[in-house]
Amino acid sequence: AKDLARRGLNVCLISRTKSKLDSAAATIKEKYANVEIKTIEFDFQAASPHDYKKLQHEIEALQVAVLVNNVGINYRYPQFFDEVPLEEDLNMLKVNCEATMRMTKMVLPAMRQKKSGAIICMGSFSALHPTPLLATYAGTKAFNIQFAEALAAEVKKDRIDVLAATPNLVCSNMTAGVSDRKPKTSFLIVNADEMARATLNKLGAVTHTDGHPHHAIIEAVLSALPTSFVNGQIATSQFSTKKRAEKKLAKSQ
Q1: Residue 75 annotated in active site
Q2: Is the distance from CB of 150 to CB of 166 less than 8 angstroms?
Q3: Nearest to 121 by CA among 64, 46, 70
Q4: Are strands 208-209 and 160-165 parallel, antiparallel or unpaired?
Q5: Which candidate, 59, 2, 10, places its Cα nearest to that of 35?
Q6: How far apart are CA 54 and CA 37, in angstroms?
Q7: Structural contact between residues 171 and 183, judged by C-beta atoms closer than 8 angstroms
Q8: What is the percentage of the chain residues whose pLDDT exceeds 70?
Q9: Residue 125: pLDDT above 90?
Q10: What distance in Å separates the CA atoms of residue 205 and residue 55, rounded to the nearest whole number?
Q11: Is the distance from CB of 59 to CB of 99 less than 8 angstroms?
Q12: pLDDT tens for residues 157-188?
């Protein structure tokens, strides 16, 4: 949102937490005073079809030029598929996939009519390689990638750009997992603002991006290595992360 404002676009923020919405809006307004900011409090996990209808009325009143489907949830830490409660996996499908589909359906008709617009869908590195202990999460992100790339081909003639982004680790609360603090940035764990800027820079040029240059380099290297080796390294990392998270949780009890 900050980078869209930096480019001179008015911004509409949608989230379930009013305090976070107000904080984000204030931060953007402080730096980009001429940008108009609208906030909508909306819980994608609990939303009913009726709730989406009400949201649609608000969205249709706006002239949406760029839709960023960025809402998403993940496990607190890697877990075996059969350890995760069914309700948690179903919520993940609802937030990560249903929200992307519904929001896109809201804005696409007007974009096609204007012959202009852009849509970004968030995939993940975990959807590019088999990622054990994130089975449902990776599956939802794979849906977003295929959805975006298929949609890009559909609406190309209408001059609408659709982009699937597949970042690796980004410095955020989601990446923190069971930790109380955000992770430090590194070559692998990139700054969220830099990731957003790099992704938006690719809009209109390609239909699929890793986003940050660091992640593009990592993916290029992995693509050159034997698949069995890469899959084995990812599995080892996932099991190690699970073990560390469970050890930390056990200590906190």
Answers
A1: no
A2: no
A3: 70
A4: parallel
A5: 10
A6: 19
A7: yes
A8: 99
A9: yes
A10: 31
A11: no
A12: 999 999 999 999 999 877 777 776 778 899 99
Are 1 and 24 in contact by the 8 Å Cβ rule? The answer is yes
Is the pTM higher than 0.85? The answer reads yes
User: Which of 32, 75, 137, 242 is an active site residue?
Assistant: 137
Give 117: exposed, middle or buried? Use CB within 10 Å, 0-12, 13-18, 19+: buried
Spatial separation of the C-alpha atoms in residues 147 and 144, rounded to whole Å? 5
DSSP output for 133-193: T-HHHHHHHHHHHHHHHHHHHHHGGGTEEEEEE----BSSHHHHTT-SSPPPP-SSSB-HH
Q: Which of 32, 52, 75, 141 is catalytic?
A: 141
> What pLDDT, on the 0 to 100 scale, is given for residue 18?
93
* Contact between 80 and 133 (Cβ < 8 Å): yes
Collapsing DSSP to helix, strand or coil, 212 comes out as coil
Q: What share of the chain is helix, strand, coil (3-state, %, to 5)?
A: 55, 15, 30
pLDDT in tens, 24-71: 999 999 999 999 999 999 999 999 999 999 999 999 999 999 999 999
212 within 8 A of 190, measured Cβ to Cβ: yes
Q: Confirm whether 141 is a catalytic residue.
A: yes
DSSP 3-state of 67: strand
